[in-house]
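Dear colleague,

Thank you for sharing your sequence with our group. We've completed the structure prediction you requested, and as agreed, I am returning the results in plain text so they can be pasted directly into your records. Please verify that the sequence below matches your submission; if there's any discrepancy, let me know and we will rerun it promptly.
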Amino acid sequence: MATAAPAYIAHAPLEGSARVWGTIALSAATFMNVLDSSIANVSLPAISGDLGVSTTQGTWVITSFAVANAIAVPLTGFMTQRFGQVRLFMASVILFMVASLLCGLAPNMTTLILFRALQGFVAGPMIPLSQTLLLSSYPKAKAGLAMAMWSMTTLVAPVMGPLLGGWITDNISWPWIFYINIPVGIVAAAITWALYRKRESTTHKVPIDAIGLALLVLWVGSMQLMLDKGKELDWFHSPQIITMAVIAVVGFAFFLIWELTDKHPVVDLSLFKRRNFWSGAVATAVAYGLFFGNVVLLPLWLQQWMGYTATQAGMIMAPVGMLAIFFSPVVGLTVAKIDPRRYATFSFLVFALVLWMRSNFNTQADFVTIIIPTIIQGIAMAFFFIPLVTITLSGLTPDRIPAASGLSNFLRITAGAMGTSITTTLWENRAALHHSQLAETVNQGNNAATSAMAGLASNGFSTEQVLGQLNRIVDQQAFMLATNDIFYASAILFLLLIPLVWLARPQKGGAGGDAAAGAH
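Please find the predicted structure tokens below.
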């Protein structure tokens, strides 16, 4: 029998050094978690080579983490009611360290993928709960500042990931990209337990919605597998992909019906009745999907077609955090006074500008040309998370924050995984198209082509070598044009997202503050 939900206990905000240490511990845990979703990106060639599989199979290292994480995140609200915020957060951090150790020790690809899935699953509650615990540590007036501190870690980690991953892979060995979580986790867990163990939220026995959970695993898993295997199996020309697509759609439909009618749903879908919640959450998810797809594409293009090493590709991605760190506290302190919809609009405009600049790259682009848009992108990122989280969580009571934060993070993570799959697939399709168009122009009537062939032949290249060299040049141009196409399309999509933000209603007072203070 489920007992009635006990009254919500509001804890007084933390003071002085306790608040500083609390912020550091919660941010460190978030940092370690977000870092792990991107650290393997640049290390994939090394991991795949070391474990003797293709890079395509290697991408499962990223996606197995994402799928398991996507399934676990929306369960946060339900698990919090059952076990309590602090206990659940501690369990998440400790199990994450154990899973990281297992990932580093994995002897082959199958076990690595399995341990990455475990790591993704236990990491689920960490981000929504770090957000919830941090909001409870600050007074209502400083909710914006709390979100700024939190979002700085979620912004810096995806950028540090490739840089750190590249450096560790080039200089030590890839298992260390997992081992570095252990010291961070120990520090985060120790401080959190010391400060928060007496601030546990009330718990009550909620019956487990097993059918809802099974349906969630079924449709999210099928959708993710479809996205991961799609490129390899030629999308909807493959019966396997069609089957997974059907399972995902039907599973999703059943999941919706079940969750909307069940008394204790595993995911609280009633949140979508709130206009601010769905407009904020959808805008965040789509923008994050676009952003993440492009974050994966840039180092791929640099490493495959521009001759960059993993470390150099990481260096191109790193400066994105510089301006983000500078502007985030400013946004956090002013978001209560300035309409967050304006900030989000500004962010999307800057993202569009950055992607438009990148859509003008060519194969002669030097390091400085490629890095300038990355630096500007830091401004967009500072104005991205805080206003959108503020809109999404505005007007919610504190007991609903873990569920709302979990659900919006689920949408964001799933969109990130979809963004990666869609971007890389479109990139290769566009490149194939450009390759065939460019190849048609390489013929006897083309003076540039004939003189290049003659030049190569006079250097002692055989006919096969000459054609091989030409093909490589055509390939490089084709992928360059495909990269430009994707950047340009992404810029347009960012502009189209702006009206979505304006569907949200403005809230009186700091919106995140309402949420934090618990309007009862």
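Summary note from our side: Residues 209-265 form one domain.

Kind regards,
the structure core
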